[in-house]
Amino acid sequence: MSQSGVLKRSTILVHGSVGMPLAVIGYPLVVYLPPFYAQEVGLNMALMALVLVIARMSDVITDPLIGTLSDRWQTRLGRRKPWLLMGMPLMLLGTVMIFMPPEGAGIGHLLVWTVIMYLGWTMVTLPYGAWGAELSPAYHQRSRVTAAREGFVLVGLFLAALAPAIVQRLGAKFQAGETDGAVMQFAVWLLGSDGQLSIGYGPILAAMAWMLLILLPLTVLLVVTTVKEAPPKSVQRTDWRKGLRVLKNNGPFKRMMLILLIVVTGESFRNALSVFSCSTLFRFRPISA
């Protein structure tokens, strides 16, 4: 970064690349995980939904805790980088355990590993977002940082939408008897079970897990080793009571939060119900050969 706060394009792109794997995991969590555990694992839908809500509510504790520690804990690596390095394995381990559960996994397995996955998610995403806001003091440079990150998020969403179609197509070919070829054998080894490749939700979630196992370490290690953190600045700490009063009197902030709540609520309903709507209401079925 120059003295004027102008960032190199490579710095902006490398930092933004972490947004890609973080976007990949969003789709399967809300779209494919519920029908997988309900229809293929055999868990009660209402109980499973309650477990997912409980796991998500753990953020009420971990979000402010990780945010505060990330702000105050200064290391030789910086304030933000250690959290990405510590949170990444937790997030990957939790993802693998809920996307590719062992035989006999039940509701307790889903709860424990989902909480661990969300803990790792918080340890990565909160410091990562704060790091981006600190890369430059210049307003337009921060806009470029955000735009690059959101660009990679779109790439991640595209990959997350494309992967299920590819996996389902391979599964349909395998079911039709097309079991030869290096690509098919590799897909069976990577995504199948007991030498079989089905067209259910299991192979889709396995593909998403492998995608995250590759992309998240690659991008996190790249940004940690090549992008410098901005030096910490001394700021005046505000008492939490005073902070609440400031938020209460901030009209634009309250309107923004209301809009965000409406958008996220609508997205949550749509994502959670899309697979069930397509399979039961519209009678869509997995693609066939």
UniProtKB/TrEMBL annotation:
Q: Which Gene3D superfamilies match?
A: MFS general substrate transporter like domains (1.20.1250.20)
Q: Name one GO molecular function term.
A: symporter activity
Superkingdom classification of source: Bacteria
Transmembrane regions: 12-33, 83-101, 107-131, 152-171, 199-224
Keyword Repeat set for record: no
Signal peptide residue numbers: none
Q: What is this protein called?
A: MFS transporter
The organism's taxonomy opens as: Bacteria, Pseudomonadati, Pseudomonadota, Gammaproteobacteria, Pseudomonadales
